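Example record used in the benchmark description.
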Amino acid sequence: MTLNDIRERVNVFLHPRRDRVLGAFRTLNVFVTLIAFGSLIAYYGYPLESSMAAKLIAVIKGSFAFYILHFAVRWFFDFHPLRFARAHALEAVLMGVLIVEGLSDILTSKVLLGRALDPLGIETIEDWTVWLVQAYFLVVLVIEISDRARSLPRFRLHPATLFILSFLFLIFSGTGLLMLPEMTTDGLGMGFLDALFTSTSATCVTGLMIEDAETFFSHKGHVVLMVLIKLGGLNIIAFGSLIAVLARFGVGVRQHEVIEDFVNRGSILGSRGMLAKVILWSIAIEVVGALVLFIFWPGNLFDSTGDRLFNSFFLSISAFNNAGISLFSGGLADARVASAWLVHWTVTLLVFFGALGMVAVFDLFDQENLRERMRKPWKQIRFATKIALYYSLGLVAFGAISYLMLESGPGGTLDGMGWTGRITTAVFQSATRTSGFNTVDIGGIGTPMLFLLIILMFIGASSSSTGGGIKTSTFAVVISHVVGTIRGRQHPQLFRRSIGPAMRGRAWGILMFFIVGNLIGTFALTLTEPHILDASNRGFLQLLFEQVSALGTVGLSTGITADISAAGRFILIASMIVGRVGTLTVAFAFSQAVVSRNYKYPEGHTMVG
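Model output (structure tokens):
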């Protein structure tokens, strides 16, 4: 009897039992994952007695044993074990790590990874690995459930609806976590409204903060903020990239299979698919940024290597995702890092590339694209990449030069700095118009520059990026249309390409959406915040600045965020959510194909202007 004959007999024996056993394990997997995650939240969110803590740890370890058993059963019941192992290589490696660490814990009461990194002062690595493993299986569980839901028509959701629901889920999950006692240094947790505001700000990568992130939150609270920033930013990048891809094809969702290519259903971290590429590239950029920050921090700034490494990753993730949240009181204007120019330049570059958009980053730096341009020197970067790159550079240059000219005089925020500090600060504040980081007191900036910052925040970042605003592409199309109209061109031009009526309509629609949103929000704030209007050093401009910052998901503030009333905070929460999901979903709706009608109404004539 040959090996193939043996394998065939085994498959015949397993086939009748396969679906029943795997179905039972899938059902158990739902309960085990949810129970394990609940145990993690209880263990890390509340002060516990040692006996209760031991029970929760036992539940978490038991979930790991179940994951290993589940993987082994899936592999055993697969008709092609070698193909299964290759297709699930990442999960197989993870299972191997869990087995080794489990044996190490049983034999020595210490995991190997913890022992290896103890000399570096990284004391919480075991907690991190536990959360990461559980998060991985939770994501796998969500994808598995969503894959099943696709077969049921009543559960099919429009991608824009799914995007909004995912953001609301993240926001309310973050709200619940930030309310836990262990998340704050006082051991009381945040109140609901403050937690909702902070979670919305972190998830929408805005950066407006009511409390001082450094002193108010514990280390666990800092971890929650970082995770919210990462998940919120990743959601934005993924959906923004999807919009960019759809816009390139110029088709509706139901008329093209591009969404299947984008999400690569069936393999969350597969080698193909745009989503996997977005995840891997964003993580790689953040890791590089963290390592550079780790090197450039001033000496003796942190108590341990672990603190230095954690702060590096937190700031790198916050910068690349344009969140604007740092773990220094006063932001990067804090005296401890106010003159750390290399740190400032690193953050500037991370913010710039985060605001440039992943589609543009892929076009500029993807190895395949670079090789093709080397082989074919005449081949240029794509039209959308030109808009993102050149307009981003132009806005940074305009903002930096304006900042140097307006803030270098007596009493300005650059007064007393050397030229290194002046240039660094001017470029930093111009480039971070999308992120909310500051190296000076924003409340001390003069009115002219404050007004220009409002304009820069209004324009914002590029498409498929984590930044907000109307986007550089919208700004470029509107400007080209205006210039074309003034010059009497029937077909507006941009980088030797004609701008069609559909694209012009999208741009003007998003522009009007943002103008009306800011007008409504600012008007509402004037009704709820009369005490700010009556203050001696504050007024309407500060409220307008706060509103534009919220709707543009920027996070810069003149220092009035903590003084906003409860009603005003709800207005800013709504602005942050609408600013984050509104422009993307409006763009998504406009990107779909319009049904052609072979008729038109008579042209109307009226005076314009």
